[in-house]
Amino acid sequence: MMFERFTESARRTVTGAVAQAERLDHPEITEEHLLLALLDQAEGRAYFAFTALGVRDRRAEVESALADARRRGGLSKSETDALADLGIDVDAIVRRVEEAHGPGALGAGAAEPEPAGRARGRRRRALLDHRPFTAGAKKTLEQSLKVALGRGDKYIGEEHLLLALAVRPGVVSEVLTDFGAGYGEVERVMFGDGK
């Protein structure tokens, strides 16, 4: 199984992603939660890369960029820009939806308000159940194995998780790139060899 190859720091990252989903009250674990868990690391190559690239000092901005994407229903900035080129103003649509259905209506895990008793029961069930990983988060974990094997490594460390997040298309890789931590920059800082 793939998880047998995870280092202790990679396992801490996955566990941290679960904690991030819980903290944000999200029903599933996403790539965003993996990124936030990596930002919480206090040592290792991912920590070094985030520190060297100045991302750790801008965590609040990273979280804000991720929240903006959630608010847009998960659309990345490049997708929003592409729609704008077609004459579609995503921000205007989001404003209209939020006027009708409340703030964050398009966000991840947004749902109709529940009666208080049902909400308590759902929360109680959620405490007993585990939060599943989204398809994107699972693909990121699989990509981390490919990154590790491509580098000739027999283990999967938090550095491989970070490179997997940076290489997979989507909101997280776009946010990393916007903060100067795209795949190439991260690889150079962590390994210096461009391997």
CATH class: Mainly Alpha
Annotation, overall tally of beta strands: 0
Mean pLDDT: 84
CATH superfamily: Clp, N-terminal domain
- Annotated CATH architecture: Orthogonal Bundle
The helix-and-strand class reads: mainly alpha
Question: What is the H/E order?
Answer: HHHHHHHHHHH
The total domain count is: 1
Q: The CATH topology is what?
A: Double Clp-N motif
Low confidence ranges: 108-121
Outline type: globular
Strand content: under 5%
Helix content: 55-70%
Number of helices: 11
How large, in whole angstroms, is the Cα Rg? Answer: 18 Å
- Note the main sheet: none
Termini gap: 26 Å
What would you say about this model in short?
The chain has 11 helices and no strands.
Explain this structure to me?
With about 200 residues, the protein is mainly alpha-helical. It has one domain (about 1-190): Double Clp-N motif, CATH 1.10.1780.10. It is about 65% helix and about 0% strand. It contains 11 helices and no strands. The chain has helices at about 10-25, 30-40, 45-50, 60-70, 75-85, 90-100, 115-130, 135-150, 160-165, 170-180, 185-190. Helix 1 crosses helix 2, helix 3 (about 45-50) crosses helix 11 (about 185-190) and helix 8 (about 135-150) packs across helix 9 (about 160-165). The longest helix is centred in the N-terminal third of the chain and has 16 residues, at about 10-25. The two termini are about 25 Å apart.
